[in-house]
Design brief:
By secondary structure, the chain is mainly alpha-helical. The chain has two domains: 12-167, no CATH class; 180-363, no CATH class. It has 15 helices and two strands. It has helices spanning 2-22, 29-61, 64-75, 77-88, 93-110, 114-132, 139-179, 181-197, 202-208, 213-233, 235-247, 255-260, 266-282, 302-313, 336-363; strands at 317-322, 328-333. A two-stranded antiparallel ribbon has the order 1-2. Helix 10 packs antiparallel against helix 11. The longest helix has 41 residues, at 139-179. It starts with a helix and ends in a 12-residue tail after the last helix.
């Protein structure tokens, strides 16, 4: 009897797996936390980030058309993230288009933590939409109803709570960085920098946690240390092509080599542990632009553009002094010291420190010839 029940259970399990495969549903950590999150970052980049850059340019040039263009792009952040996630999950067209409404609802109701709400809600509603996709003769009605209905319902029920939770975590990190800039400068710089090199989106995480201010500055330092660090320390193997692809592209290109020899990750990580507190304690580098820029490093120079656009948006103030309630009570104007600090933290120090640490590890034979070679 038990054998018969097991046989039936196995058959049902096989049918379920076959159905999920047919509906293109692949339940895995990689699918949701690597593929979907990376796509979400691209959606953010193509809406909020580019909109911020265009809007800032328009403000400085006194060109209202560019300001309007930037505002239109920023307003589409929620839909862009949700559609990007659905695209990464290989959703059918009806599910993909339904995510426009879901993304708008989740991002709007999630407030400052909207991106995190969009991430979870878009994944769930996309998969639910895929479950019923092309299963009925009235697919054009059923699929959007399920995808939009589940997504908007989840947004109303959970987005404010998810948003508040994400915002609270971000506020704790920012508060801790303000209180302990040296220690948290190291922690934030190292952690966010390593996340940038991993196949996870540091930009999406920074945006979801609204990581700006001094903590955002530490995040920028950590991301730059990884990208510039790997670019320069691997120059002997990868030459100019590697310098560009890693320095203004992504340090994620080294992930395959890191798996083979994790020790190659030591130099840029040590560099980030040094540049982080330099950013927070000496130069007091703040990210007052879009939080997504905190997790971009030197990728297209977005991290630096974010810092500079933050200066411009706040009347060319390098630092915003806030009271206990988070209200701005004073500002510190941008000076040559701030420009020098931005250059040192983002480019000069990561290059020098990583190369020096790498040479030491090469002497110790921990890093061997071609360990950093990109295929």
């Amino acid at each position: 009897m038990a054998t018969e029940e097991k046989k039936q259970a196995d058959q049902q399990d096989s049918k379920l797996k076959a159905f999920l495969k047919k509906q293109n549903i692949n339940i895995s950590a990689k699918t949701y936390f690597v593929d979907a999150m990376s796509a979400m970052a691209q959606g953010l980049f193509a809406s909020l980030l580019v909109g911020t850059i265009i809007g800032t340019l328009g403000q400085q040039l006194k060109f209202d058309f560019l300001v309007d263009m930037g505002n239109y792009a920023k307003a589409m952040a929620g839909p862009a993230m949700a559609v990007a996630i659905a695209y990464a999950l290989k959703a059918s067209p009806l599910v993909l288009f339904s995510m426009l409404a879901v993304g708008h609802a989740a991002n709007t109701l999630g407030g400052a933590g909207g991106p995190l709400a969009v991430f979870f809600i878009a994944i769930i509603s996309t998969e639910l939409g895929k479950l019923v996709s092309k299963q009925t003769k009235i697919d054009i009605l059923v699929t959007p109803l399920v995808a939009i209905g589940s997504g908007v319902s989840l947004s109303v029920a959970t987005a404010p709570t998810i948003g508040d939770a994400a915002n609270s975590i971000g506020e704790i990190i920012k508060w801790a960085t303000d209180q302990q800039p040296f220690l948290m400068g190291i922690v934030v710089s190292v952690v966010v920098g390593m996340v940038l090199t991993l196949p996870i989106s540091s930009a999406a995480i920074c945006m979801a946690l609204s990581l700006d201010g001094l903590a955002g500055g530490a995040a920028v330092a950590g991301c730059c240390a990884q990208m510039i660090g790997f670019a320069f320390m691997s120059y002997r193997e990868n030459k100019v092509g590697g310098l560009i692809s890693q320095g203004i592209g992504t340090s994620m290109l080294q992930m395959g080599n890191i798996v083979k020899n994790p020790r190659i990750w030591i130099p840029p990580t040590l560099a980030s542990a040094i540049t982080g507190p330099i950013a927070t304690c000496i130069f007091k580098l703040q990210m007052n632009g879009a939080p997504i820029s905190s997790g971009m490093g030197t990728c297209g120079f977005v991290g630096q553009i974010g810092v500079i656009s933050g200066w411009a948006d706040n009347g060319w103030a390098a630092q915003l002094i806030k009271n206990a309630d988070g209200e701005i009570i004073d500002t510190v104007a941008v000076s040559a010291f701030d420009w020098v600090g931005l250059g040192l933290v983002c480019f000069v120090l990561p290059a020098i420190l990583s190369v020096v640490f790498c040479l030491i590890l090469r002497k110790m034979n921990w890093i061997k010839e071609n360990d950093l070679k990109l295929n």
